[in-house]
Task: structure prediction
Amino acid sequence: MTLTAANAPRVFTLSDFDFSLPPELIAQHPAPERSASRLLDGRRAPPADRIFRDLPALLQPGDLLVFNDTQVIKARLFGEKATGGKLELLVERVLPGPGHEVVAHMKVSKKPPIGATLRMHAGGSTEVAFTATLLGRWPHEDGPLFRLAFSDEPHALMAAHGHVPLPPYIEHADTEEDERRYQTVFAKNPGAVAAPTAALHFDEGVLAALDARGVQRASVTLHVGAGTFQPCKTENIAEHVMHSEWYQVPEATQQAIAATRARGGRIVAVGTTTVRTLESWARTGQATGDTDIFITPGFDFRVVDLLITNFHLPKSTLMMLVSAFAGYEPIMALYRHAIEQRYRFFSYGDAMLLAHAACVSSEDGDRCGEREPGTKGDQR
Result:
């Protein structure tokens, strides 16, 4: 069929994903209880204003919730150069091997030379706790990140001396509350520098109610990088270069997805990081590796039927992802509703429940078409 101007797919630009957000709606602290956050049920119009602990009743027996079980590491470290100049590291990932090597962002007035030894501070003091030797740039000699060798095991050093890497829009220094609440209750695989925030709303009460409802659970791992906060700067979104993150889809989760499909259940992704993981696996057939998948309107979703997600930054790649999933106009309408109803935004904010645009919604639930996971293809 030949496309005409009337039926050609819409071409989206960066400005399409912009919106005006009152700054007081940016949540600076979590809700007193995880499951006391609000939940905007956006599966059908008009949307329904709910509380997150209502979620189990909104799902069906036989559905499969897929979580990201990454664990946020205390990746923000402070120190100084040999000259005394202050610096800050944000560890993006720990490299495999015996050399105690890491890849990090560096904030410093003047970059130190290759081979320089950095003196890293102990916790909140200026006492030197360990050293970091600058080995070069990463992933290539002109790369945006720095490769360093720590003087001891990186995870242990970060646990002892690091700070919780709170997002840039949270204005307070990290506290004991952040150490506890900027982490999911089921986090187990250390490696993230940002939390999979949609999962922050789950507590033991909600998990028990899901079990009682007959909703199944599975997990994937995607170590969320600082690039998740990187703004898209090109009006032509096709020119944006996505950051890369490591993921894994365990064999048990693959089997759980197949079993859910066989019984007619739905795949419910908890967070955009879970979406990126599952859809990367579906498009490449690779159960583990690095992904720079960029999901924009027109994307062919092969796994996910329902999505639980927080509210995202204007002009962000995550706004593009949720618009691709639930439809651009419905998403913009939901965001207008959320702002009018004073929902709390971003990492410590409230959540929403979305159905894939291909799902048929009714009072009895959402019926979604079958899709085949694990199909190899072009990731981008």
The CA atoms of residues 43 and 261 lie 20 Å apart. Residues 373-380 have pLDDT under 50 and may be disordered.
